[in-house]
């Protein structure tokens, strides 16, 4: 009973100090894991390249072998943990948040930590936000399970972990909050928004204390330009919408083509493709923002810039499509930066291209994120935080809107996460009734003012109901192997042979459950009740009747 008051409070769908503190603790745990993950990636990347360089004479041979070595270790770890636990990535997390209150299987988290670390160090065009989201949701969700919190608060904690993970990865706390609300939870409620915001802030503070105040995209400073260029921004948005549609469809095509192939051979093929391209064009490897900065600083020619863009798209499509552990947001951002720089080149006759390269790279990020993920608010907030400039809001809007409309209306493109969920047959849509009921835990709704009888005769039950007709009466029957509970009420039927009392068999629900589980038990009969237990299935701590549940269903909301 140590945390009973805490559980009772967070079962309510309302903002509370307790829920905020839980968000801070969950965000801190998630951020610490992500910081450890980032440090491990940097260490393996530096030590691995140094070791291979000392063994091999040619640099191209190092670039060729790095992906193959990474895949070999990834497969070994997947073998140890079980290949059935290889489900990972943001689509899987969305599914678990929607249908399992954010509970993530621990073995998938192990695969994501080591697999993502090796994939990033091996030069694959994948992002670290995929592992960050997965591990963030898992760590915060495990905190909720350890405290045996109601499932409605466990889901909020998973959202806190996701926000802290993204914030610790990119140092963009506001964009992290918007991403969780817009893409993962797909709702805006104050009692959810506040703890997630605190968790994102914790992730950013801890990341800055380790990696410094400046984020990796600080080199992308926005330069204001003349208003005559606004018309071209609409064209830029249309072209980015077309590129995003191409990217999504080719990614899904690769996933479909190679579905019959075993995971082992898919990962080996991805390593061979990445290694071969990397040996020929090293600039195409990875989804590191620092590499794009070096590319821009080197004043690349048009051919090199276009080549890097094309091969980045190809390597990202094959790496993600063939199952390499890692995220899609990082590659989309890098592709958006390169696409923005390439699409600036037609204006070289009118403006100084190097002066506006960073601005168009930021706008490229906004357009690609919007059209690929269908997250316009997250894209807008991301470029605002990355540029530290409010002047980008209007130009970004002029890119985001045509990119989104072009992608969705003219090319019927859908969010890449939704496409992947449908491909993997992972449900993600829930009914409005379920969505409303899952916000409240049974601890917040159960009635503890009930009268419990132990194998009492019918006369004793009738006498009590005559004195207190509105009170809940429960009959307990003990057997050799278990205990059964029945709700006792007056029989109000008009049948001529009806008995005085009606008995309704009661099923037990864990104290972590939400009102949705109550609804699932009672919706057929539209009557009766369930009893709530804490740890012992036979130990009743409260009762929820159909009438109590109905009052929540009909409750007015602002």
From TrEMBL:
**Gene Ontology molecular function, alphabetical:** chloride channel activity
Task: Give TM regions.
Answer: 20-40, 60-83, 104-126, 156-180, 192-211, 231-251, 263-281, 301-321, 328-351, 357-380, 392-411
* Gene3D superfamilies registered for this protein in UniProt: Clc chloride channel (1.10.3080.10)
Key word RNA-binding present in the record?
no
- Keywords, alphabetical: Chloride, Chloride channel, Ion channel, Ion transport, Membrane, Transmembrane, Transmembrane helix, Transport
Membrane topology recorded in Swiss-Prot or TrEMBL: Multi-pass membrane protein
Q: What InterPro entries does the annotation carry?
A: Cl-channel_core, ClC, ClC-type_chloride_channel
Localization, per the record, is: Membrane
Pfam families attached here?
Voltage_CLC (PF00654)
Q: Name one GO cellular component term.
A: chloride channel complex
Quote the protein name from its UniProt record: Chloride channel protein
């Amino acid at each position: 009973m140590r945390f009973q008051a805490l559980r009772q409070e967070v079962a309510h769908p309302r903002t509370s100090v307790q829920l905020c503190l839980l968000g801070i603790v969950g965000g801190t745990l998630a951020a610490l894991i992500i910081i450890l993950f980032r440090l491990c990636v940097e260490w393996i990347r530096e030590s691995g390249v140094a070791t291979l360089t000392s063994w091999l004479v040619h640099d191209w041979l190092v670039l060729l072998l790095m992906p193959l070595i990474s895949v070999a270790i990834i497969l070994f770890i997947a073998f140890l943990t079980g290949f059935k636990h290889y489900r990972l990535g943001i689509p899987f997390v969305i599914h678990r948040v929607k249908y399992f209150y954010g509970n993530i299987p621990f073995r998938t988290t192990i695969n994501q930590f080591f697999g993502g670390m090796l994939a990033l160090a091996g030069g694959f065009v994948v992002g670290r936000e995929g592992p960050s989201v997965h591990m963030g949701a898992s760590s915060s969700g495990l905190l909720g399970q350890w405290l045996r919190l109601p499932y409605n608060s466990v889901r909020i904690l998973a959202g806190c972990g996701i926000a802290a993970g993204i914030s610790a990865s990119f140092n963009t706390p506001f964009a992290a909050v918007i991403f969780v609300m817009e893409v993962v939870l797909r709702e805006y409620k104050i009692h959810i928004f506040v703890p997630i915001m605190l968790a994102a802030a914790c992730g950013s503070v801890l990341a800055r204390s380790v990696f410094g105040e400046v984020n990796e995209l600080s080199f992308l400073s926005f330069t204001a330009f003349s208003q005559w260029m606004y018309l071209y921004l609409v064209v830029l948005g249309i072209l980015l919408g077309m590129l995003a549609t191409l990217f999504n469809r080719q990614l899904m095509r690769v996933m479909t083509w190679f579905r019959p192939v075993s995971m082992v051979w898919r990962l080996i093929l991805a390593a061979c493709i990445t290694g071969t391209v990397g040996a020929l064009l090293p600039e195409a490897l990875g989804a590191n923002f620092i590499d794009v900065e070096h590319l821009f600083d080197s004043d690349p020619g048009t051919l090199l810039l276009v080549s890097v863009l094309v091969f980045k798209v190809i390597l990202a499509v094959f790496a993600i499509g063939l199952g390499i552990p890692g995220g899609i947001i990082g590659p989309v951002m890098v592709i958006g930066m390169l696409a923005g720089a390439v699409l600036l080149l037609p204006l070289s006759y009118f403006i100084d291209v190097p002066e506006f390269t960073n601005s168009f790279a930021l706008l490229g990020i906004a357009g690609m994120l919007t059209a690929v993920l269908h997250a316009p608010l997250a894209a807008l907030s991301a470029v605002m935080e990355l540029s530290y400039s409010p002047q980008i809001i209007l130009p970004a809007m002029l890119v985001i809107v045509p990119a989104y409309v072009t992608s969705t209306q003219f090319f019927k493109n859908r969010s890449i996460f939704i496409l992947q969920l449908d491909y993997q047959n992972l449900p993600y849509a829930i009914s409005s009734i379920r969505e409303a009921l899952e916000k409240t835990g049974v601890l917040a709704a159960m009635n503890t003012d009930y009268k419990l009888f132990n194998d009492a005769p019918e006369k004793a039950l009738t006498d009590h109901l005559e004195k207190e007709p509105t009170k809940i009466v429960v009959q307990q029957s003990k057997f050799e192997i278990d205990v059964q509970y029945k709700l006792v009420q007056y029989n109000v039927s008009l049948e001529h042979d009806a008995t005085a009392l009606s008995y309704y068999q009661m099923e037990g629900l864990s104290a972590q459950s939400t009102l949705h589980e109550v609804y699932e038990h009672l919706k057929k009969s539209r009557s009766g009740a369930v009893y709530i237990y804490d740890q012992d299935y036979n130990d009743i701590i409260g009762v929820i009747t159909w009438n109590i549940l109905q009052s929540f269903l009909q409750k007015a909301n602002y």
